[in-house]
């Protein structure tokens, strides 16, 4: 079970620029390290992250891209990313992580804009 | 983030490793120094998790915004750190992350604007405990 933590304010004023933080549990194994037996540990990385915004009432919509990232071995274990969003309307933020060995994780958070 | 702004770009010559990477990312666009603020501690105790923050001066409107930010390093086994895609929805051109650093080295943050022009800041950091070496 993958654990992820996403921090988004529950409510925001229209036009306010909010901060979004996302952390996901993952070793981000670089493929350059060796185990205590001397075997090369196979590479296991999260490669892609995305955050999309789906406006309320548009549940079928895939939403608009807010932020996306391509990650490499130089990203620390348990990747942490923080970015911003200008609160324009109420909706849902959908977070997606994808990586090696079929890794995939999705989180969604609702946000109310007054 | 409690970090100090690192030596200004003008004070250091960009490594020969970084320049072609920046050029490739720019894909023909003009690359200039400035507008980008690359926050990282100049002295890193532990290379396994180094907080970084990149902010770019941009109004982030439909007409004028940052479309992407790339970070490259000089001496890790792989030169790519991350490439970020931004949109005007963000309201602010900022990204923070935690990275790994194998050695004391230079890093560069390049921001690509929607008009194709690129801006960058190069920084140099000292790493006391390197990543990638311990088991």
Summarize the structure.
The complex is a heterodimer of chains A (114) and B (135). Chain A is mainly β.
| Overall CATH architecture of chain A | Sandwich
Helix count, DSSP H or I runs of 4 or more residues of chain A: 0
**Number of strand elements of chain A:** 8
- Element pattern of chain A in H and E: EEEEEEEE
Indicate the mean pLDDT of chain B.
89
Gyration radius of chain B, in Å: 14 Å
If you consult CATH, what is the topology of chain A? Immunoglobulin-like
Biggest β-sheet description of chain A: 5 strands, mixed
Shape of chain B: globular
Give me the oligomer status.
heterodimer
Query: How far apart are the termini of chain A?
Result: 35 Å
Structure description:
The complex is a heterodimer of chains A (114) and B (135). By secondary structure, chain A is mainly β. Chain A has one domain: Immunoglobulin-like (Sandwich). Helices cover 0% and strands 51% of the residues of chain A. In chain A, the strands form two sheets. In chain A, strands 2-8-7-4-5 form a five-stranded mixed beta sheet, with no helix packed on it. In chain A, strand 4 and strand 5 (64-71) form a beta hairpin. The mean pLDDT of chain A is 92. Chain B is mainly beta and 135 residues long. Chain B has one domain: Immunoglobulin-like (Sandwich). Chain B contains one helix and nine strands, in the order H-E-E-E-E-E-E-E-E-E. Chain B has one helix at 18-26; strands at residues 31-33, 36-40, 43-46, 50-56, 66-73, 80-86, 94-99, 105-113, 118-129. In chain B, strands 1, 3, 5, 6, 8 and 9 form a six-stranded mixed beta sheet that branches. Chain B has a three-stranded antiparallel beta sheet with strand order 2-4-7, with no helix packed on it. Chain B is globular, with a radius of gyration of 14 Å. Strand 5 (64-71) of chain A pairs antiparallel with strand 6 of chain B.
């Amino acid at each position: 079970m993958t654990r992820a933590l996403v921090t988004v304010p529950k409510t925001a004023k229209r036009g306010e620029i909010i901060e979004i933080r996302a952390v996901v549990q993952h070793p981000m194994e670089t493929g350059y390290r060796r185990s205590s037996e001397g075997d090369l540990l196979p590479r296991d990385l999260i490669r892609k992250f995305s955050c999309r915004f789906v406006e309320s009432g548009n549940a079928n919509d895939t939403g608009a891209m807010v932020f996306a990232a391509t990650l490499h071995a130089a990203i620390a274990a348990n990747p942490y990313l923080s970015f911003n969003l200008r609160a324009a309307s109420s909706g849902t933020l959908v977070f997606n992580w994808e990586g090696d060995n079929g890794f995939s994780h999705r989180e969604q958070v609702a946000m109310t804009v007054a | 983030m409690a970090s100090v702004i690192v030596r200004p770009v003008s004070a250091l010559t960009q490594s020969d490793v970084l320049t072609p990477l920046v050029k490739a990312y720019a894909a023909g666009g003009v690359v200039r120094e400035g507008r980008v603020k690359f926050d990282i501690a100049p002295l890193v105790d532990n290379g396994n998790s180094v907080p970084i923050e990149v902010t770019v001066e941009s109004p982030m409107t439909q007409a004028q915004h940052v479309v992407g930010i790339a970070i490259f390093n000089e001496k890790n086994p792989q030169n790519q750190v991350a490439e970020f895609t931004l949109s005007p929805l963000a309201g602010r051109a900022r990204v923070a992350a935690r990275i790994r650093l194998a050695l004391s080295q230079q890093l560069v943050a390049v921001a690509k604007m929607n008009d194709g022009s690129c801006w960058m800041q190069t920084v140099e950091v000292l790493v006391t405990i390197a990543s990638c070496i311990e088991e």
